[in-house]
Amino acid sequence: MDVADDLVLRKVCRKLQQFNVRNLDLTAETDITGDLEIDSVAVLDLIMEVEDEYGISFPMNLLSEIRTVGDLVRAIHKQAGAQ
Asked: What kind of architecture, by CATH, is found in domain 3-82?
């Protein structure tokens, strides 16, 4: 991961910390729904927050590919580069 990825990763991890009831070390490999046990409504809320913060919009088909924190970071960069 480069510096830009690391910055986005830290921001995403800060957003996810509210769901981290098991006090896990959040990394790029952390499974958003599995490890953090976040339900689909909370995931959509998170996605909308990220879209607003970065001024991007995720296509619906991309949402199904986001499983880990790293997937979300890569999706942010992909969409930010596409706009």
From this structure: Orthogonal Bundle (1.10)
